[in-house]
Each structure stands twice: as C-alpha cells, then as structure tokens.
Amino acid sequence: MSGEYALTDNELTMFAYRGTVRCLALLDAFISCLSILNGAGLWFLVVVAGPLLGVSGAGQLRRAPVAAYLVFCFLKLFYYMLLLFETNGVAVIVLVYLLIQIWVTRIVLTFSRNLNTIPEERLIQLRDPAFLPSAMQAHRDFRARFY
C-alpha cells in the first residue's frame, strides 16, 4: 500500500465509528430537545451542548469536543443509574435507557480511544476531504492483491 495513503487499523476503526458517533449524538440532541418541549426545564438546554459537541467533534476529528461528549455520556450513564436506584429497579424503561446508554458510551469511548492514538499531524491530513477517498481506494487495492 502506498505509504502516504496507508490507513492503520486504528484509523480504519476510527472512520468506521465516526458516522455512528455522529448519528448517535444527533439522536441524543434530538431527544434532549424533546425533553425541553415536554417541560423538563432549562436544565436540558445545557444537556444539548454535549451531543452537539459530539456531532461536530466526530465530523471534524477533533479530540476536545469528542472528549466533552464522552464526559456527557458518562454523566448521563450515572444519571440513569441513580434514577434506577431511586425507583428501586421497578421502572423497566429506566433500565432500558441505562442499557442503551451503556452501549452508546462504549461506542463513543472506542471512537475516542482510536482518535487519541492518532498524531495531530496525521489528523490534519485525515481531515482533508480529498484524502479519504484516495486512502480508501489504496486500502481496497492493497486488500485485492492479497485476498
């Protein structure tokens, strides 16, 4: 594979999770907005910031916004755990929310870990819109030679 366009396993994993994180963060922002409309108060205006940082951070391959979204995911996870204990485990819907949040947090954590292993110079290169199609084609060509 040509050296400039070679993608490491971490980069391939990061790109595989990138769209999922953006989609989950967008869905998270939408649900938070619905909570605002249902009269949950102004607190949820603050909560919308976390998912919006996740959308932009995953899209632009930026570490700080992704880290902020990861912190948001952990806080939401702890919130659902407290809510579950508060209801003495009776509320099945809270348990479902908790399980979904565990899944979302694991995905964001995997994306964040892979993003953090890539040097900033390489991230600048990966952010270039013209780079990814060339890299993916080089990856396909490489795999076609050996598989």
Output the radius of gyration: 18 Å
Rough outline: elongated
Count of beta strands = 0
Low-confidence stretches: none
End-to-end C-alpha gap: 14 Å
Elements, N to C (H/E): HHHHHH
User: How much of the residues is beta strand, in percent?
Assistant: under 5%
The major beta sheet can be summarized as: none
* Backbone structural class: mainly alpha
Share in helix: over 70%
Mean pLDDT: 84
Number of separate domains: 1
Supply the number of helical segments.
6
Task: Describe the protein.
The protein is an all-alpha fold. It has one domain (9-123). The protein is 82% helix and 0% strand. The chain is built from 6 helices and no strands. Helix 1 runs antiparallel to helix 4. The chain is elongated and about 55 Å long. The protein starts with 8 loop residues before the first helix and ends with a helix.
Supply the key terms.
147 residues, 6 helices, mainly alpha, 82% helix
